[in-house]
């Protein structure tokens, strides 16, 4: 077995690989960019090498530098993880040319599946069922337009060299085709260096079911159950599970055998995933093959009891597959939720910030957390915004869902927006519990997945006030005289009762509270009501009784910003001070950057008349494009940035003079 490997990746997957390698007695070499000097994967590795500036194009994608470090460190093999160079044919070839084992498939297999159009041609020849569409070499707009007409609508434009939802567009009608094609090509070129597209019929009620395959160097292959990854946003997976609910044993076997056939058709070696679209009538169609370890591989590990990274290392060393197909068994049910720094309420806009507070559920045989961050780390614009993967297992699907709901309630983050509340609503939604799954699940159930807060606003304000006051008391210096009234920490005043004023800002609303403190309780006055409050604060855990209702929350107070966590929900407020000067980031008639990122395209010029909703600026952040649209009809008066510029969240991009008609309509 290898004695030392280099991991050409970062974040949770680098940590995941190190965990197994260390268990097998293998030393690990990490690489890191300027942004990752203090990262968790660097601390876990036996040694680490600086590789370049923060942008991945200048660090984690520098294949020649990684090869050089592997040689210098004496690493016998390189594990690419997923993303970055994991499906880069040239990198795999460079490893082979330098006598370094690439822990993945041969470069020829990556090349065969790296082009989605070429992959479909190979699968067609191998007898694997395909979705109707076009995957030819002629990429002229005229040809693509003609093929779109033949395919019919709705259709899916998909980057030939793509993955992770990038370079993909659903087109509902011919009138939208040209704009969608231009945007998909531009995004694909930026992400993969290849603007070529393929066209597929867009199935309206499909499920995304994928098969985990493994092949050894002798050509033997097995499949290790399947995963359902239907719940997606922007064509990126949000929640995955194994096994896929509702599949017959006949379909499961047919799909598994087709996946192995697909892998063997390209002389595959190692871990791979064959993705299928599964239709309501039970038919399934080859979609693509990912020639690497998948993000969602832990759910397969949980139901099979196998360590897939260990399998990768053994197969790369030349050992046979650890199990025959007849020996592959599954038990129970597993789910994985991807915890992202993003704002679900703003169309899942990626978020940046500091993880100033991070508390995770306790790990056990039922709960697993794969992460590459620790409290205090920054989520930057340079990499994917995934914070962690939360994986749960139990005997049945319903029990596993209950585990997931509970674990999400114990996952608490402050300092950056996350999708935890959304995931909690998703896992607990009745249609999900009933396995009513399609790739359009999120759009079909938006009302269920974006619920109102579980906390009554007034009760939340009372809890917030109590948390603030109790934390202040815990930090005050207690008088050395136990008989002094000032030692009682209850705002004592001689000959009078003193109601402390407190202003809390929630969104744009400022709430005036008054708190009367006695020895054993508080009286909190808010919104014309009075609440009797008793409580106890232990570190970040507040146990309270409000007018006889016992309620417990966790909280984090930092620089006058308070977050309370309650049953998967959060309540955010600020201690308001007049000097804060809260203002809107951008006034009427202006466009502000909703995130840190880069300007990809400016689609207007000074003097242009624009309509409300018209796309004016395209920004790129965390490898995804976002259209910034006009807030109202008007005339462009100023443009403050140009293509290629880096901008910060809140920066004004374009100024618009709102026309009189638009102002009248607004009033």
From TrEMBL:
InterPro entries on file: ATP-grasp, ATP_grasp_subdomain_1, BC-like_N, Biotin_BS, Biotin_carboxylase_complex, Biotin_carboxylation_dom, Biotin_COase_C, Biotin_lipoyl
Alphabetized Gene3D superfamilies for the sequence: 2.40.50.100, 3.30.700.40, 3.40.50.20, ATP-grasp fold, A domain, ATP-grasp fold, B domain
Reported cofactor(s): biotin
Chain ranges of the Biotin carboxylation domain: 1-447
Superkingdom of the organism of origin: Bacteria
Statement: the UniProt record of this protein carries the keyword Nucleotide-binding: yes
UniProt keyword terms in alphabetical order: ATP-binding, Biotin, Ligase, Nucleotide-binding
Domain ATP-grasp: 120-317
SMART domains named in the record: Biotin_carb_C, GARS_A
Pfam families in the cross-refs: Biotin_carb_C (PF02785), Biotin_carb_N (PF00289), Biotin_lipoyl (PF00364), BT_MCC_alpha (PF21139), CPSase_L_D2 (PF02786)
Domain (Lipoyl-binding) ranges: 580-657
CDD domains in alphabetical order: biotinyl_domain
NCBIfam families assigned to the protein according to its UniProt record, in alphabetical order: PRK08591.1
Protein name: Acetyl/propionyl/methylcrotonyl-CoA carboxylase subunit alpha
Annotated organism of origin: Marinobacter alkaliphilus
């Amino acid at each position: 077995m290898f004695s030392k490997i280099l991991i050409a990746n970062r974040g949770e997957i680098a940590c995941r690989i190190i965990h197994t390698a260390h268990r097998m007695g293998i030393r690990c070499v990490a690489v890191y960019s300027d942004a990752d000097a203090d990262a968790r994967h660097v601390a876990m590795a036996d040694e680490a090498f600086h590789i370049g500036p923060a942008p991945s194009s200048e660090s984690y994608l520098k294949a020649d530098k990684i090869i050089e470090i592997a040689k210098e460190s004496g690493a016998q093999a390189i594990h690419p993880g997923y993303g970055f160079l994991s499906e880069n044919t040239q990198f795999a070839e460079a490893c082979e040319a330098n006598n370094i084992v690439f822990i993945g498939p041969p470069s020829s297999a990556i090349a065969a599946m790296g082009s989605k159009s070429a992959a479909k041609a190979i699968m067609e020849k191998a007898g694997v069922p395909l979705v109707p569409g076009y995957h030819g070499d002629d990429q002229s707009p005229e040809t693509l337009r003609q093929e779109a007409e033949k395919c019919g609508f709705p259709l899916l434009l998909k980057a030939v060299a793509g993955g992770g939802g990038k370079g993909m567009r659903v087109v509902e009608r011919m009138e939208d085709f040209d704009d969608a094609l231009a945007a998909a090509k531009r995004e694909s070129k930026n992400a993969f260096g290849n603007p070529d597209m393929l066209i597929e019929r867009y199935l309206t009620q499909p499920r995304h079911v994928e098969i985990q395959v493994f092949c050894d160097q002798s050509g033997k292959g097995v499949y290790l159950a399947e995963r359902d990854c239907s719940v997606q946003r922007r064509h990126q997976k949000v929640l995955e599970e194994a096994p896929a609910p509702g599949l017959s044993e006949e379909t499961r076997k047919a799909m598994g055998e087709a996946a192995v056939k697909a892998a063997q058709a390209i002389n595959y070696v190692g871990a791979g995933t064959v993705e299928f679209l599964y239709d309501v009538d039970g038919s399934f169609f080859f979609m693509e093959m990912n020639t690497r370890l998948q993000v969602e591989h832990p759910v397969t590990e949980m139901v099979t009891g196998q360590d897939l990274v260990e399998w990768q290392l053994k197969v790369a060393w030349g050992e046979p597959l650890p199990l025959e197909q007849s020996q592959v068994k599954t038990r129970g049910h597993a789910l994985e939720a991807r915890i992202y720094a993003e704002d679900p309420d703003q169309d899942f806009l990626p978020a940046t910030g500091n993880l100033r507070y991070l508390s995770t559920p306790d790990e056990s045989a039922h709960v697993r957390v794969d992460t590459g961050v620790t409290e205090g780390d920054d989520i930057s614009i340079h990499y994917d915004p995934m914070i962690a993967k939360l994986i749960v297992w139990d005997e049945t699907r319903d029990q596993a869902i209950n585990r997931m709901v509970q674990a999400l309630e114990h996952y608490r983050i402050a300092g950056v927006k996350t999708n935890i509340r959304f995931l909690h609503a998703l896992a607990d939604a009745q249609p999900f519990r009933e396995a009513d799954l399609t790739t359009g699940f999120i759009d079909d159930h938006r009302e269920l997945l974006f619920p109102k807060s579980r906390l009554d606003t007034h009760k939340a304000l009372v809890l917030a006030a109590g948390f603030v006051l109790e934390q202040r008391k815990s930090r005050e210096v207690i008088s050395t005289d136990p008989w002094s009234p000032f030692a009682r920490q209850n705002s004592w005043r001689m000959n009078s009762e003193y109601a402390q004023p407190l202003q809390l800002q929630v969104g744009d609303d400022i709430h005036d509270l008054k708190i009367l403190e006695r020895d054993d309780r508080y009286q909190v006055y808010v919104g014309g009501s009075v609440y009797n409050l008793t409580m106890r604060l232990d570190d970040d855990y507040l146990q309270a009784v409000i007018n006889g209702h016992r309620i417990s929350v966790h909280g984090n107070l930092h620089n006058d910003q308070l977050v309370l966590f309650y049953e998967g929900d959060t309540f955010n407020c600020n201690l308001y001070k007049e000097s804060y000067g809260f203002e809107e980031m951008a006034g009427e008639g202006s466009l502000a950057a909703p995130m840190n990122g880069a300007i990809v395209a400016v689609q207007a010029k000074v003097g242009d008349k624009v309509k409300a909703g018209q796309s004016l600026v395209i920004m790129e952040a965390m490898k995804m494009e976002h259209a910034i649209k006009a807030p109202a009809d008007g005339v462009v008066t100023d443009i403050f940035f140009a293509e290629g510029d880096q901008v910060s969240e809140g920066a004004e991009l374009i100024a618009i003079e709102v026309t009189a008609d638009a102002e009248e309509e607004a009033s």
